[in-house]
Amino acid sequence: MKDSISNFITIIRNAYGASHADCVAEHSKVHEGIAKILKAEGYILDYAVSEIRKNVKQLKLTLKYVDDAPAILGIERVSTPGCRVYFAHNELPKVLNGLGISIISSPKGIINNRQARKEKLGGELICKVW
After folding, report:
1. E strands, the chain, where?
2. Domain assignment of residue 29, given as a range
3. Among the four residues 30, 32, 60, 63, which has the most C-beta atoms within 10 Å?
4. Above 70 in pLDDT, residue 70?
């Protein structure tokens, strides 16, 4: 069994740990949704989708550093293929008392915990970022 979201999160974590300027991962709609939220929340500078071969795409993330320190101090996978974790909108956990974000897979797509509470949407808790 392959968990592509864990691989994607590990690529980001390892790239920050090695102080790389960018990282490349395989493309999927979920990966792109996570990258979109990370960019909107200011954890990465940018992301781009490129086609390397016919029907084979990759996702390139440009990482963000603040005073030579990574913008993402921690990123942790919560729900796994072996143990799915779901929350209602009013039960979503806060990350570091609201300083971090949770990324949720909801019926309206990949969203962060603030948007899920505002739209009263629950779903699968994919990961936590701080």
Report:
1. 22-26, 44-53, 56-63, 65-66, 69-70, 75-77, 86-87, 101-106, 109-112, 123-129
2. 4-129
3. 63
4. yes
Q: Which of 90, 86, 97 is nearest to 119 (CA)?
A: 90
The count of C-alpha atoms lying within 13 angstroms of the C-alpha of 80, restricted to the half-sphere facing its C-beta, is 8
Domain count, the chain: 1
* CATH assignment of the domain containing 64: 3.30.1490.10
CA atoms within 13 Å, Cβ hemisphere of 78: 19
pLDDT, average across residues 106-125: 96
Q: What confidence score (pLDDT) does residue 1 get?
A: 59
Q: Residue 55: left if φ>0, alpha if ψ -120 to 50, beta else—which one?
A: left
CA distance 13 to 44: 12
> Which ranges constitute the DSSP H helices of 18-88?
29-40
- Alpha-carbon distance of 23 to 102, in angstroms, equals 22
